Amino acid sequence: MAPRSTPVLLIEDTPSLARVYAEFLKKESFTVISVETGSDALDQLADGAPKVVLLDLQLPDMNGMEVLRRIAAQALPCAVIVITAHGSVKAAVEAMRYGAYDFLVKPFSADRLLVTVRNAMERLRLAQIVETYERDISRTRYHGFIGSSLAMQAIYRIIDSAASSRATVFITGESGTGKEVCAEAIHRQSPRGSKPFIAINCGAIPKDLMESEIFGHVKGSFTGAVSDREGAAARADGGTLFLDEICELAPDLQTKLLRFIQTGTFTPVGGSKLEKVDLRIICATNRDPLREVEEGRFREDLYYRLHVIPIHLPALREREDDVLEIARHYLTDYAAEEGKGFTHFTAEAEQALRGYHWPGNVRQLQNVVRNIVVLHEGDTVTAAMLPPPLSTGGAGAHGAGPAVPLHHPHALQPGPAPQQAAPAAAPPAPPPQPPGPKPIRPLWEVEKDAIEDAIAACDGNIPRAAALLQISASTIYRKRLTWQAEGKL
């Protein structure tokens, strides 16, 4: 059996019993740390590492219950099993009150001990998983990102995992989703966080100057090069170089970038000296990079060299209620900047924000909130203050205006009807029959039909459908997963 990763701290002042218990545990490949006093036990627990604790209540320097109280007070990640020869209901109740996992009365068999320790270790493992999940799911701010949606929690976890590596990261996503924010988050979370973060927008610099911008140049290498100039690669030495809109690079520069990534060396424009740097490259694009490769605009070998850790940032419309968290954040910030008193949105304004498609993503939302703060006064943002297209409703807010039904009084504007012969009198119609009772359907079917109809009416946009149904988008995601698991979808 493989060694257990979580150690067992055995606190027992009788050496013969301590040896017996330790032998039982070591046969099952548990790592055992054995101490005889409460003070030594507290020293072992001071590192805060997860442990299964076998705690004797009768210790030479203090009562074992005091050790248990310290563990509870400091919320240490331990599963405590109390062992004592002086078992009583009162002692068991007090031990459980301070968070003990189980209570063993001496003497006990090896099997009883091992089963209890195994169960305690499993409980500790599950508790750590739950704690990690709750910590992650509660993150509403992360290195410049705002949002607690499931989509963003997944992004935060990828950044956590990728930050410590030297591997190249390739970020994709629509314009305005925060690709540079993501690159900075990776840099700040990494061991290079104290070193330079240098960003270049490959689409904003003329192609004939791009090589000089990345690799620098020497004096006289081209017209206007009046002195030596250090490029972004040299400035980012030890840190991170972020190449935004990487698909805009000219083909000849793509070749030089590929060699730079492979060797870590470059030559400034007009120079002859080979320079070497240690940096991490993060790149981003709002295009489909594989399509750029297929159509011959981006080198395939460069794509695979860069595409080591892919991160796709979700559009704002895919982030559940993050739109409201972001809007409230910027409302407070911009109101302080402009000297205004805005503090919150009305329910109608929040409904409009939640239901809008946001083609420009977070950048568009920032502009909308700035517009409101600059052009209006008050402490509450109403729906009437929202700028177009949010204020127009219909096509502006939801993509397509409602169709006018044929029976609508303005649907048709006919002229005078032509003279026609009066039709022959029809026989009287039979009296209408009262409708029978509607069949009763299961509630989940009614709910499922309403949700699926709303999603179809919104062209598959679940957050917009949730806004119209006045429920959370996460509720729809959760219910659809349940129906799928039960074979009802």
TrEMBL record:
Matching SMART domains: AAA, REC
CDD domains: AAA, REC_NtrC1-like
Modified residues (4-aspartylphosphate): D56
Sigma-54 factor interaction domain segment(s): 145-374
Record Gene3D superfamilies: 1.10.8.60, 3.40.50.2300, Homeodomain-like (1.10.10.60), P-loop containing nucleotide triphosphate hydrolases (3.40.50.300)
Domain Response regulatory, chain residue ranges per copy: 7-121
Cited InterPro entries: AAA+_ATPase, AAA_lid_NorR, CheY-like_superfamily, Homeodomain-like_sf, HTH_Fis, P-loop_NTPase, Sig_transdc_resp-reg_receiver, Sigma_54_int
One GO MF term attached to the UniProt entry: ATP binding
Feature: compositional bias, Low complexity: 400-424
Pro residues bias: start-end ranges: 425-440
Region (Disordered): 388-441
GO BP annotations, alphabetical order: phosphorelay signal transduction system; regulation of DNA-templated transcription
Protein name: Sigma-54-dependent Fis family transcriptional regulator
Protein keywords: Activator, ATP-binding, DNA-binding, Nucleotide-binding, Phosphoprotein, Transcription, Transcription regulation, Two-component regulatory system
Top-level taxon: Bacteria
